[in-house]
Amino acid sequence: MTKKPFYAHLYVQVLIGIALGAAIGLIWPLIGSQPWMKAIGDAFVNLLKMMIGVLIFCTVTTGIGHMNAARQVGRVGLKAIVYFEVVSTLALALGLIIGNLVHPGEGLNLHGDASKIAKFVSPDTHETVSDFLLKLIPATFLSGLAEGNILQVLVVAVLSGFALMRLGDRAAHIRTLVEEGSRVIFDIVNMIMRAAPIGAGAAMAFTLGKYGPSVLGNLLALVATFYATSAIFIVVVLGIIAALAGFSILRLVAFIKDELLIILGTSSSESALASLMEKMERLGCSRQVVGLVIPTGYSFNLDGTNIYMTLASLFISEAMGIHLTLEQQLMLLVVAMLTSKGASGVTGAGFITLGATLAVVNPALVPGMAIVLGIDKFMSECRALTNFVGNAVACVVIARSEGELDRDRLRAGLSGVSDPVSPA
Length: 424
Prior knowledge:
Layout: H1 10-27, H2 29-32, H3 35-65, H4 67-72, H5 75-102, H6 114-118, H7 129-136, H8 143-147, H9 150-167, H10 172-193, H11 196-211, H12 214-245, H13 249-255, H14 257-266, H15 273-282, H16 287-300, H17 303-319, H18 326-339, H19 349-361, H20 369-373, H21 376-401, H22 407-415
Helix pairs in contact: 1-11, 3-9, 3-10, 3-11, 3-19, 5-12, 5-16, 5-17, 5-18, 12-17, 12-21, 14-21, 15-16, 16-21, 17-18, 17-19, 17-21, 18-19
């Protein structure tokens, strides 16, 4: 098969688009600040927003529905799910803590389109619990999808997922239908992402053209904060977990370095899924544990995506001058735990789930997605890399806890003295 030239790769095209957009905004600010330039960036965001509801329904429903497989293998599956949720919560919490300490979006004052924001703001600021519950429960099964109410979509998706889990094999055909539907949705997303160079370039041109080069400092600060937070999570949080399990996180990262380089080029951890499963077996994890933990982790253990969701949400709220209360930040943590399911492996899915999270926590923040559109590409690789390392750690930890780990093979593989061979 003929190798594609470097410029045919989407990530190269996005980088070129961002560079051209930045040049237009800095050199010709009058052109960059034109309303039609903003409209191009907003149109791309709206195309992605169009897919949010059905994407969240499919991924959350199938994610919970697949817990049936975990239940069938008993203790190992339950332990994996509990581990994923605990570690994912730590990732979300770390993102919130760092975001509140660093404040990368502070001082930007990018208030966005007032007309768009106004329609999300309720005239009644004293919403009661009953009002909230009425908004939480959809009038019909499809109301949330039709109205774009992501919170209602989540309610229906969670109920549908648990129904599929309870019915087991009797609902296998429905589960397959939803899974195939999600593949169609992701393919549409991939088609939309082909327009990412134009959308990202226009958004960057408008942001720099209207607000000046000073905004670059805040955008770069967000990227740097995200990378630093992800590094802290891997080295400290996953490092402590690995140490308690008796191995070095740095040696494990070195062992899977080839797969990490593949992910760096594709921005998708799914591209190295098969290779990771093979390497985890070579490292001494039993085939049964690898077959359960790795695929399940790709939907449930998305540490990098969770860090991104909380950091980017706080950045957008600060940039738009919309304060998030403690209650809203806690809601952000809970909602992000659900919306992030299924976001791994598909380029651009993290950006879509960010929109879904913002729509629930405070819909007035959704127009602010355009602010981070131009730099999202720089963070997608880090999301995928962090997700990947997190799943590798999870596999070894759970295998060890179940007595399904060959420690001699683990030591040999991580020492680099010998390359462990695949078990017969």
